[in-house]
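Task: encode each sequence below as structure tokens.

Item 1
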Amino acid sequence: MPKFYNSISAHLADWALRQPVFFTASAPLTGRHVNISPKGLPAATLKILSPNSVAYIDATGSGSETIAHIYENGRVTLMFCSFGAVPRIMRFFCTGRVVEWDQPEFETLLERMGKKRPLSARAVILLDVFKVQTSCGYGVPRISSNISGDVGKTPEMAFEDRETIDHWGADKVEKNELLSYQEKNNAHSLDGLTGLRTARRGTGERLWLGDIQARVKRILAPKESVIVGMFAGVMFVLLLQLMAGAVKKYWY
């Protein structure tokens, strides 16, 4: 069952910094690509500055998707997950800004983070965390207790599936609770977008009506485009009126 928080508590901050890797996810307002990037060891590259503020050092890479998306719309999510015995997934839903290596604030942020400047660093990503989510992580593999062979050649041998997810699913099915769980948690996204159709149907939603509402929402979502279009329309009408006035004055 997911849990939501308005800020990062001390014990969640400690847990995040003990994980071996974290991931960033971002997307443009338009376009086909959604970006997901694995980042470095949290303890080495990331700092939780306050319950609602996080910064991480961004190293030079083969692309700059996260930076580009933050410049465009500011949206980014950080994800941590446990590969140890105790499963957990944690997400920080954020808005962010980019502080590039040649900006005066860059060195100040590094000092505040208590980090040395890596030679490959191109920016510090400063994030405002507006929501924290934790969930079970039953589907994430764990480090195997029976590692054998050359892990360097066969790294997949270092991991094994957890039995927890199957046990959880079997328990829900036995109690006839799986569908009700889906109806509660899978019918819509955090932003209210339509989700699993069978779950929506189970809640009594009229799918055709929900789909129409979702389509209208998508059309109206780009508020900036609507505002710019209205402004352009008003300016065009005013221009036509001015031109008509000039023509009328010329002929009469």
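Item 2
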Amino acid sequence: MPMPLEYRQASADFDRFMKDLVTTSMLTSSHQAYTMLQAVFYVFRRRLTVAEAIAFAGVLPPVLRAIFVSDWRPEEPQLPFVARDELQKEIRAFRYDHNLSTETAVEDVAESLKRHVDARAFQRLLAGFAPEARHFWKLHPA
């Protein structure tokens, strides 16, 4: 079997995603956007079952998938979803000294993700998740 195209062009696809995220978030560098992406993924992942997290990772492009599962400790207790402002505080607390996440970090990541994932697969996946998990990725007016 030939190497899947998604792996062959993973770096280029990731570069496009990061440029999109920098533009969407109006951050000034890919380093800032990367930390924000990590934080959003980490905060979301902590609220999923192991099976849900694996399924979510499966709809992401390869490099985003790797970031989503990076440093994962599946034995950590699953946290409940909380109000958006509390989630945002948790996002901003991730790697605090290096985190310049926007006040709309989840929305910024969601906006960029929707342009870089298979939209149907993403929506099918989220349809099977709890309402709070679906709501996490819902875009909200600023």
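Check on item 2: The CA atoms of residues 25 and 102 lie 7 Å apart. The chain has one domain: 5-71+80-136.
End of task.
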